[in-house]
Amino acid sequence: MAKCGGCGPGYKSPLDAMKGPREEIVYLPCIYRNTDTQKPDYLATVDVDPKSPTYCKVIHRLPMPNMKDELHHSGWNACSSCHDDPSKRRDRLILPSLISSRIYVVDVGTEPRAPRLFKTVEPTELFWKCDLANPHTSHCLGSGQIMISAMGDPSGNGKGGFILLDGETFEVIGNWELPGEAAPFGYDFWYQPRHNVMMSTEWGAPKALANGFNPADVKAGLYGQRIHVWDWTTHKHLQTLHLGEDGGIPLEIRFLHDPAASEGFVGCALPGTVFRFFKTQKGDWAAEKVISVPSKKVEGWVLPLMPSLITDILISLDDRFLYFSNWLHGDIRQYDITDTRNPRMVGQVFLGGSIQNDGPVKVLEDQELDSQPPPRVIKGKRVQGSPQMLQLSLDGKRLYVTTSLYSAWDKQFYPNLTKEGSVMMQIDVDTVKGGLKANEDFLVDFGKEPDGPALAHELRYPGGDCTSDIWL
């Protein structure tokens, strides 16, 4: 945690955060739903301090009290948006459950290396007070409240609304959005108060994606392809940006970290594109496609064309580099976004995926590669699955990656992943010229967990990071 003489949590600015201490532990949810282990999901604490005797090891596991929650993403009770409030502490991790719709509040302040469960918000609270379910992204607000995006209604239909929690009691207050103004689908969101705006994205209807992916559901309109623009002060839904077929399933959305910036990026899973969104001279908002990853013509796969499936995206704290993972092709890419309208790829590394040269898939036409990449083996372990969730160190020099997307899709696309468990890897980043290289001495193997192979998902540092902190 930053030491700044009476200041609140986090850092004064994104550039101050880059000077913060090196990460020593990370928290990440581990999922047992859709695996052979009939146990609750749990929060793992992993030692990432190279000087520590327990480096690269899970040092603590906090099991949840219920089964098949599908822990997914996490957020904080307070972050840099509360930096000017010395009464606030970043000491509670908010863990929404994508399938059960529970929200767990975890005490990470008392013993950071041994978190304990503080409170459980039951699904009925979300159902009855908000008519919402399937909570996803959690952000703390400058007001001290916590806001969580929802993906559906209690029946599993798509509904993109937002749940407000009290930041002290963690009781459900109600909806953030105005009555009748929820979006058709929900997923991620990011706010930028200086422009009085919030942006949200769309995954799909929970009942369509709960047990796997069916391409027919896309044609049936059960997956999204829009960005929603909201007035941050009045909570009014202002605009819908239709991305079309080039922007199917827009997932992670990131404003630039500079709180004065009026632009950002969103990664779209199908067909594998990145859109830049921006404020126009008129004062409204627009979006344009700036990156497109070509699909590969293949045989031996479920479809004749394999999209990249961009599933996670993040921006370095200095707003210089953008990173994303291609969960089907198997690579992570680094782009120089100094010119935000013309991102330039400067780094790429393959870590698994569906087109490895010893697998069942044969690539017939490839607009980018001359040959199929070999399998990736780190510390004697063959990487199953593909790079998915990303987290960047504050200084931008280390990129951490896990390989699980979502248990039902893991089981469908990478069945060995649910049998052998996911891994956590570390990528060394060249922050001068650009470039990515796997650290061959770093691997956390969740296939060797005491209760059986687990699926590790999103990563969080105790002191905040570039995907959870928002500056005002």
From TrEMBL:
<keyword id="KW-0963">Cytoplasm</keyword>
<dbReference type="GO" id="GO:0008430">
    <property type="term" value="F:selenium binding"/>
</dbReference>
<dbReference type="Pfam" id="PF05694">
    <property type="entry name" value="SBP56"/>
</dbReference>
<keyword id="KW-0560">Oxidoreductase</keyword>
<comment type="pathway">
    <text>Organosulfur degradation.</text>
</comment>
<dbReference type="InterPro" id="IPR015943">
    <property type="entry name" value="WD40/YVTN_repeat-like_dom_sf"/>
</dbReference>
<comment type="similarity">
    <text>Belongs to the selenium-binding protein family.</text>
</comment>
<dbReference type="GO" id="GO:0016020">
    <property type="term" value="C:membrane"/>
</dbReference>
<dbReference type="GO" id="GO:0018549">
    <property type="term" value="F:methanethiol oxidase activity"/>
</dbReference>
<keyword id="KW-0007">Acetylation</keyword>
<keyword id="KW-0653">Protein transport</keyword>
<dbReference type="GO" id="GO:0005829">
    <property type="term" value="C:cytosol"/>
</dbReference>
<keyword id="KW-0711">Selenium</keyword>
<protein>
    <recommendedName>
        <fullName>Methanethiol oxidase</fullName>
        <ecNumber>1.8.3.4</ecNumber>
    </recommendedName>
</protein>
<dbReference type="InterPro" id="IPR008826">
    <property type="entry name" value="Se-bd"/>
</dbReference>
<dbReference type="GO" id="GO:0005634">
    <property type="term" value="C:nucleus"/>
</dbReference>
<keyword id="KW-0472">Membrane</keyword>
<keyword id="KW-0813">Transport</keyword>
<dbReference type="GO" id="GO:0015031">
    <property type="term" value="P:protein transport"/>
</dbReference>
<comment type="function">
    <text>Catalyzes the oxidation of methanethiol, an organosulfur compound known to be produced in substantial amounts by gut bacteria. Selenium-binding protein which may be involved in the sensing of reactive xenobiotics in the cytoplasm. May be involved in intra-Golgi protein transport.</text>
</comment>
<keyword id="KW-0539">Nucleus</keyword>
